[in-house]
């Protein structure tokens, strides 16, 4: 393809050599063809669009000025070349603006599915094990504004939040070295969106991505906007071992329950177990016969009685 371009430019230059009386026009034509070729081949679609739009407006103005005799004929070619150059400058500036980023071809090409991590998912920390074990692949993206949000928490938050933020920053460095994903630190920040959650939604819509979060508020906003969400808490609840009525589990009750005689203990995965008539066994390891399993928004609760 490059050889055809060079051949075309040589033909234009040969016309300039053989038709010297029109060398200004032909040289201007050569410059224009070269610029258009460069624009179509290397520039973003939005840059080309705004360049052509600006050039079209300039041509209308120039035609009007020529019609009224304001522009001398002998300077017309030079003015035309100057306007083409100015159109490229304006088009490049507008094309780089995130405000006008509505061409999908301007977005980076990533292989596989794109998952965008928010601050809550990173500060939770469990997402690293999920990715490391291969349950999440494709492209994992962390927006720059999310990284800035975490850095702000690290500088101004409470001691516990600062520890979480530091863990998140270390986790980002670890994600960069994982081989089973493509990690991307996205610099795109849609200026029209002020709120972090809405920025994430706009970014997910732009990349047709899924948002990975632990934030209930972001989860609701994403659902309203028809953006797919991967909630780590939902995943953790789904992976808890199945407990069915009639089975026997072994736990150690650690405190009294709400009702008289009840005791409460927890499985290794954090599932609460309420034992009827188990108050006298607090601190002791016992076998519990499962009578009922309740799934609530707060998680799973197992009810049972002490096996005699």
Task: Supply database-style keywords.
19% strand; OB fold (Dihydrolipoamide Acetyltransferase, E2P); 5-stranded parallel beta sheet; Rossmann fold; 308 residues
Q: Decide which structural class fits the backbone.
A: alpha/beta
What is the count of DSSP helices, taking H or I runs of 4+ residues? 11
User: Number of folding domains?
Assistant: 3
Label the overall shape: rod-shaped
Please bin the fraction of helical residues.
40-55%
Task: List strands and helices in order, with pairings.
Elements: H1 2-18, H2 23-42, H3 45-67, H4 76-96, E1 114-117, H5 119-124, H6 126-132, E2 138-143, H7 144-156, H8 159-176, E3 181-186, H9 196-207, E4 210-213, H10 216-224, E5 229-231, H11 232-238, E6 248-251, E7 255-256, E8 263-266, E9 272-276, E10 286-296, E11 299-306
Helix pairs in contact: 1-2, 2-4, 3-4, 7-8
